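Note to self: the last two entries modelled the partners one at a time, which told us nothing about the interface. This time every component goes in together.
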Amino acid sequence: MTMTAPAPAVLTEPARPSAARLTAVELRKMTDTRSGRWLLIVIALSTVALMPVIVFTVPERDQTLLEMLVATQAGVSLLLPVVGILAVTSEWSQRTALTTFALVPGRFRVLGAKAAATGLLATAFLVIGLAVAAATRALGGAFGRSAGDWSIPPAQLGGLLVFSLAMVFMGVAFGLLLQSPALSIVLFFVIPTLWSTLNELVKKLQKPAEWLDANRTLAVLSDPAGGVATAGEWARIGVSLAVWLLLPLVIGLVRLSRREVK
Amino acid sequence: MIDVVQLTKRYREVTAVDAVSFRCEPGTVTGFLGPNGAGKSTTMRMICGLTPPSAGEATVLGVPYARIANPGRHVGVLLDAAAMHPGRTGRETLGLAAQVLGVEQARAQQMLDRVGLPAKAARRRVGGYSLGMRQRLGIAQALIGDPSVLILDEPANGLDPEGIFWMRTLLREFADRGGTVLLSSHLLREVEAVADRFVVISGGRIAAQGTKDDLLAAPGGVLVRGLDAAALHAALAAAGLAARPEGAGAFTVDAPAEAVGRAAAAAGVVLTELRQAGGGGLEELFLSLTAGAPAVPASVPVPAEEALK
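The predicted structure of the combined assembly is written out below.
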């Protein structure tokens, strides 16, 4: 910018769309098609799925609000990566990237808005889960089936949020790396299974797996009996996310910046 | 204003676009012509910052496209009408664009009216649209930010004759109000009536560019026909003009029409026809410029290139 004359005023005005507006646009894109809406509705409904199971099978003393909240997130955590994957891959499969990047040439800004939108959705599902869990606990109490604790330690709520965000952002990073919805979704679910099988077969891998298997390291965050994660557990979470989130994200960013938009 | 300077795109071994330069001025419509695979779309994507060029540069309104803060408010782009989300309604597609650009949502309805998409169609999902309807929607999307430059790739594809006439009128009015239009086509007829200037590309290289008159004034000689072929031939020979017989008393002569007319008049030969050779006009010229050009770029220069510049 020091070498060239400043661009004419006509081109810095009107201002570029703000990050907030781009995030709102990305949320709108995720909800304005039938398939997108249904995916989100199914995830929202999944929060209710395990509630009857808890109310009718778990001893009433153990029917705590935390137990129920964790149960609301079981289906959510399974499907959140799909939301993340589709957010970053569907523009390529539907070819809308041509319009998106013609209107917003800053590709990383678009990606940032998509990540923010998926993060907001993940947070929203945790809030929905909290409401569903509270309603279940209240109803269970009213009918004399639930007698567990109402309290949720804030650190554990925070842990659940980190868990949800990690799941959705792993999906984003995976989608960014592979750039194809079908491939990303299949591999996202197949690789951890293969990895676990490999661990069973090769004894030497079991020690590293405690650090590298994100499903295992993150499990502590979504375990109602797990308490608040220790420093050692956070370290393992950090290492596993470096492999499953940071690495694909960085490679994916390079691919995104170089890719020709057709 | 669009300025393309020595724009080049190489894919491994293949050079898809080879040192292409041209300029589109405000108030004009530039027809970007060439057969399929000639490099038109690649050039347009490079102008819009969607494909990184291997060499050269392109500016729109004096700056690289990607450096425009809110490009949709200055440049309307339609690169592929088929590339729309089939699950969104036409109206929602425009609503999204309006939101990104920061213009009122009401612009979506105005643009639907402007391109003649009825409200009923606008409520339907794009997946059920014909290509012609998608082109109209794509043009509406390009216009929604009230731009001063339009870049349209094959916008007439899939339009019926009435639609092509409508688009021509729209683009002419846009340019007459001071706008800059660059539109590509592989069919000369679609743009011949609306374009002020033509850029003909073949095999990734510029084969010719200029106004219609510039292109037709290209040396192709003059065709002359007389009542008495032998007398005409003698008259031309006497005037020192080399003539090639074209049959039925006609000859082509590499000389200005005036010189041929004078030669005939001096010998008292009655002429029945005297005109620029290549009677097909632009069409014939276009075909001759692009005929035989391989879909993948040739490594040899197009012979007509220098002569026509």
